[in-house]
Amino acid sequence: MQYVVIAFVILILVGAALGLKIVNQAEVMLIERLGKFLRILNPGLNLILPFIDKPRPILWRTRVTDMKGRDVIREQHSKTVDLREHVFDFPKQSVITADNVVIEINGLLYYQITDPRRAVYEVANLPNAIEKLAQTTLRNIIGEMALDATLSSRDEINGKMRAVLDEATDKWGVKVNRVEVQDIDPPVTVREAMEMQMRAERERRATILEAEGVKRSKVLRAEEIGRAACRERV
Fold this sequence. Notes:
This protein is α+β, with helices and mostly antiparallel strands. Strand 6 and strand 7 (71-78) form a beta hairpin. It has helices at residues 2-19, 116-121, 126-142, 147-152, 154-168, 188-233; strands spanning 20-23, 27-33, 36-41, 44-47, 53-55, 58-65, 71-78, 81-82, 85-96, 102-113, 174-185. Helices cover 46% and strands 33% of the residues.
């Protein structure tokens, strides 16, 4: 009888431990009953039915760059969904402009999960899906722009990417707040040609300024000679 009581007490304690769920601020927990979505637990102390209700396990994989510059896959296991704004650094990639110049470009994407249920159930791996979507969207936008326009229109690129990504990720319960293109690196030959063009432009401007200075000096000299001649006649 004593062992039965002990077992019963242990069962109650285990059930209480499994039935009480504490959710941190700015997080939610998805609960499934017998494998089917039941409800969302908000921050604070929550009660579920032990052994029947279980938190939905979430595994998200993201690609990050290690200390040696290599791309590695990082796995994040969690039972909660973070509702704070996330910063995603999509890696540098090669894209082709409308005038067939290959450039390397990367950037930052700021997004926030607004519907945790859709973020978990509508897409298999949210961070990976956002990364691939950002890459393909960037290729499409740059592919419609010439190199000169690409280098001088970062705000336009940011606006187009944010609009496209925000619309595409709405079905995943995600709000894309802003996109920031960071580095745009044209090929070495293109950079050298741009530098030569800049030097030539600076030299042209310097030559024009020098010629205008010489011309102005001659005009002033001629005016001075004219005034001197007038004074002599007087």
